[in-house]
Design goal:
The structure holds 2 protein chains of 2 kinds.
Chain A lengths: L2 H14 L15 E6 L14 H7 L7 E3 L5 E3 L2 E6 L5 E6 L13 H15 L1 H7 L2 E8 L2 E6 L20 H4 L19 E7 L3 E6 L13 E6 L3 H9 L5 E2 L6 H8 L4 E4 L9 E6 L9 H10 L2 H8 L4 E3 L22 H10 L11 E7 L4 H15 L3 E7 L2 H9 L5 E6 L5 H4 L24 H12 L3 H18 L2 E7 L3 E4 L2 E2 L16 E2 L1
Parallel strand pairs in A: 1-10, 15-16, 15-17
Antiparallel strand pairs in A: 2-3, 4-5, 5-7, 6-7, 8-9, 9-10, 11-19, 12-19, 13-17, 13-18, 14-18, 20-21
Helix pairs in contact in A: 3-4, 8-10, 14-15
Chain B lengths: L3 H35 L4 H9 L4 H11 L5 H13 L13 H36 L4 H15 L2 H15 L17 H39 L2 H8 L4 H30 L2 H6 L5 H10 L3 H29 L9
The chains are: A alpha+beta, B mainly alpha.
GO biological process, one term (chain B): transmembrane transport
Subcellular location (chain B): Cell membrane
GO cellular component, one term (chain B): plasma membrane
Chain lengths: 525, 333
């Protein structure tokens, strides 16, 4: 698809959307959805905190201009249509009329401009990078927003989901210290649900926003998020019906199978397409032996990733073939494959001179177990056994979140496991791990492994500003081939988190954002 | 009639005690500060780590907002200044006053732990005394085995098993939480609702304390029974019950009171495991979360309150000793 076709498709997509979304047959109003939130979020304003529980809960309270389907194509959010200029520099969004904040004040294009250009560029790391590309943002009338970019940025239309660009009220935040605004406790957004009560340590109670702009929505009366810190207790709550929905890591992977057998529950791995959680074994490329490409290639061979997916993640994962997830745009499945082969791993280690001593030991490497739950501990054990087969002692080191963040962020580690969301486009969620410009000490989720390749930098940079999809595919294919050859990190799995819910509830998964969605269209049959 | 000189001496002693107390509290506050900061990482890194996104500006902003950009000594001095002014500060993460957060969670914790503690103390000492008095009998063996089993049972496992049986299988009790959410209840119904929610967490928590007190009381009774003054009481012709109540129990209780006094401090700190398993919104869980999130002001506030409670409870334990055994009164010897 060339630039003109792309633009036309975008125009058509916007124009094809009916004005206002009305209730379909069979959707009834009423009912309470009890679900889980863990850990307890520090606050509910997604503009100021982007932890997963904050986004899950805040996604019901705050909205953005767009949503994304499972195919990652944009869908109307608060914007009912949008246009892109042929040069790819001007994006014009038309908002739905009659959108109001939870305090009754109207939401207009001024709020969108203020949120994106003032608040988010101050408080939201991802949005700061995205909107730094904007030369100007204007609100020519209350229902029109125009963004003019400094240079084309192909995935700009992918920057408007509720987690990346939540819209906050200008009349509340203008001229204040955003993070310390006392009304943060009220969490005033435009979403279909508004905050009624937050009993710390117990639950968060959301109720219907009566002034919601989509006819009849939300269908549910209320959503109650219960704070249940223990994973076994969460599983029991789902089992006995105390809660009717579990998402993300609410339920441990080893518990998922038994819920598949529970008749009243639906288990799906859909709804994570936009995030496409991609996991890898991260190796500090600055330190021997990890600084040798052959060692990193050996690591790809020595891990039985099929077994890892089956035995540690109990089938809730798919083997990753390279830096881009198969769910993300521009995935190239034809890259070089590393099969599970201890012999090939040994041969590579021998070739680089890392030979076993008289005790059969080649090296000792410290592996920091990420503090993200039981599965990461089990994966650490799995890796330790895998490395032992080629004579490498993997010493597992436990730590908590603060310790892990400090060690990895400051490059003070040898090996660990990491996971990042791909956010629908390599320019948004993939390149940050590999480009030299993102090697920033002290900053987590940057290029912490220290990989640097000028050709990779060039390809990622060019692909980000190229509008032609075919050309982008070509550029990303090249970069995938280079990265898979260089193995800056050893990609292990594409995690497929489950969403488990009571079948009485419909539309739980309606987009590629899954449980971060507004839930305005969720109803109880 | 108190003479002037005596009153002045008491006043000086009181002042001296207060000065000592203030010094001890400041020392504890300093120690807590150093201890908490010795852990790797800081709250800005944790927040960035949990967000899945980070950049230098975010870290810089957060550190500036939390005052972590200032020199270590300045931060310590600022903290001690606040302690002197009885200001526990503001939670980084929860963006609320530390004292509010603690007071919000304290009632739930006290309700859980004090109930469990009292039940365990009452039942444990009674069973321990009965077992000790009937040492070597079948009853003693049953009690001993039972207390050993309870002592060895992991508290989280017991909690989960109770949930499995009484909530999932039988459906008699709510699986977790402090109260039923989103219903309107009369005050009496509300109290009963909370009581219903308490049954399983209190039972789980009381089990281990009960075992400790039962075992301690049993061995203490057996030891006291062999003392000369018991033989003397018997020789004097005192009845069995009066020997048990008037001589044995009072003496046997001393080690139990010592252990109970030491454990009472932990009651305020909450029971992290039980609060986690039963999603009980208490102080223990708050402390644990604050530790993981490096929420320094909240952690320091909780530690300071706990330290003061422990000091006060130690004083109370001393007083109870003297009630049980007048020989321990200072200057009585």
């Amino acid at each position: 698809m060339n630039r003109r076709e792309f633009t036309q498709a975008m125009l058509a997509a916007g124009a094809a959307i009916p004005f206002g979304i009305t209730r379909a047959a069979g959707q009834t109003r009423g009912g309470t959805l009890n679900t889980i939130i863990q850990p307890e979020p520090p606050l509910l304003v997604t503009a100021f905190n982007q932890q997963q529980p904050t986004l899950t809960l805040g996604g019901k309270i705050y909205e953005s201009l767009l949503k994304y389907g499972a195919d990652l194509k944009p869908m109307p959010g608060m914007a009912q249509s949008w246009e892109i200029s042929p040069d790819g520099l001007t994006y014009t969004f038309k908002l739905f009329p009659n959108i109001t904040f939870h305090d009754g004040k109207p939401m207009t294009s001024e709020d969108v401009v203020f949120s994106c250009m003032k608040v988010l560029t101050e408080t939201h790391p991802r949005a700061r990078q995205n909107f730094a590309r904007v030369a100007s943002a204007e609100a020519p009338d209350p229902l029109t927003v125009v963004f003019k970019l400094k240079q084309p940025f192909a995935p700009f239309l992918g920057c408007f989901d509720c987690t990346s660009a939540p819209i906050v009220p200008k009349h509340i935040y203008e001229g204040t210290d955003y993070r310390k605004n006392p009304l943060n406790d009220k969490a005033i957004g435009t979403g279909p649900f508004k905050l009624k009560e937050w009993v710390r340590g117990s639950h968060v109670h959301l109720v219907r926003h009566e002034g919601y702009y989509l006819k009849d929505q939300p269908y549910l009366d209320e959503i109650i998020y219960r704070i249940i810190p223990d994973s076994a207790s969460r599983a029991l709550a789902l089992e006995n019906g105390t809660v009717q929905l579990a998402q993300w890591t609410d339920v441990e992977f080893f518990d998922v199978q038994r819920f598949k057998a529970q008749k009243n529950l639906e288990v799906t791995t859909k709804g994570y397409e936009y995030f496409a959680p991609h996991q890898w074994l991260e190796m500090n490329n600055r330190i021997a032996p990890m600084n040798d490409k052959r060692f990193r290639q050996a690591v790809m061979h020595l891990i039985d990733r099929d077994a890892l997916a089956k035995r540690v993640y109990f089938g809730s994962a798919k083997v990753a073939t390279g830096p881009i997830s198969s769910k993300t745009k521009f995935y190239d499945g034809k890259v070089k494959r590393y099969d599970y082969s201890i012999d090939k791993a040994k041969a590579l280690l021998d070739e680089m001179g890392l030979k076993p001593d008289t005790n059969g030991k080649r090296a000792e490497i410290k592996y920091i177990v990420p503090p993200y739950g039981e599965s990461y501990q089990r994966a650490g054990e799995f890796f330790r056994q895998s490395f032992a087969r080629v004579g490498i002692d993997l010493v597992l080191v436990g730590t908590d979140m603060a310790g892990w963040a400090e060690k990895v962020g400051n490059w003070d580690y040898e090996m660990t496991q990491n996971l990042l969301y791909q956010l629908g486009d390599p320019a948004l969620g993939v390149s940050r791990t590999y480009v030299s410009s993102n090697i920033k000490k002290g900053i987590l989720f940057s290029n912490t492994e220290g990989y640097s390749n000028p050709e990779v930098d060039r390809l990622f940079d060019e692909a980000a500003v190229t509008l032609d999809e075919a050309k982008r595919l070509e550029l990303y294919s090249k970069v995938q081939q280079i990265l898979v050859e260089d193995v800056p990190v050893a990609w292990t799995l594409e995690l497929e988190y489950p969403i488990i819910y009571d079948k009485a509830f419909k539309n739980i998964v309606s987009t590629g954002i899954g449980s971060h969605e507004t839930f305005g269209s969720v109803y109880k049959s | 009639m108190i003479r002037l000189g005596s009153a002045a001496t008491i006043g000086l002693m009181a002042l001296s005690r207060i000065a000592q107390l203030v010094a001890v509290i400041l020392l504890i506050a300093t120690f807590n500060f150093v201890l908490v900061r010795a852990a790797p990482g800081d709250p800005a890194q944790v927040m960035a780590g949990q967000s899945g996104a980070s950049d230098p500006k975010l870290l810089e902003d957060l550190r500036k907002e939390y005052g972590l950009d200032k020199p270590y000594a300045v931060q310590l001095a600022s903290y001690l200044g606040r302690v002197v002014r009885l200001d526990l500060g503001y939670s980084y993460r929860q963006r609320r006053a530390v004292v509010d957060l603690i007071l919000e969670r304290l009632p739930a914790t006290l309700l859980l732990t004090v109930t469990a503690f009292c039940l365990a103390l009452l039942i444990g000492t009674t069973l321990g005394a009965l077992a000790g008095l009937a040492a070597g009998s079948v009853l003693d063996t049953v009690f001993t085995v039972l207390s050993l089993v309870l002592y060895a049972t992991p508290v989280f496992w017991l909690g989960l098993m109770l949930v499995l049986v009484f909530s999932v299988t039988l459906g008699w009790l709510p699986p977790f939480g402090y109260e039923t959410i989103n219903v309107k209840l009369s005050p009496l119904e509300h109290a009963l609702d909370i009581a219903k929610h308490m049954i399983m967490p209190v039972t789980s928590l009381a089990a281990i304390y009960l075992a400790i007190y039962a075992r301690l009381m049993r061995s203490s009774i057996i030891e006291v029974a062999q003392q000369d003054f018991i033989k003397t009481a018997r020789a004097k012709g005192l009845s069995g019950p009066s020997i048990v109540v008037g001589h044995m129990l009072r003496n046997a209780l001393v080690p139990v009171v010592t252990v109970a006094g030491m454990q009472a401090g932990a009651l305020v700190g909450g029971a992290v495991v039980i609060e986690t398993v039963f999603a009980w919104p208490g102080l223990g869980r708050l402390t644990f979360d604050a530790l993981l999130q490096r929420d320094y002001p909240l952690l320091l506030g909780i530690f300071l309150i706990l330290s003061i409670v422990v000091i006060v409870l130690n004083l109370l334990t001393d007083l109870i000793y003297r009630l049980i055994d007048p020989r321990m009164t200072t200057g009585a010897a």
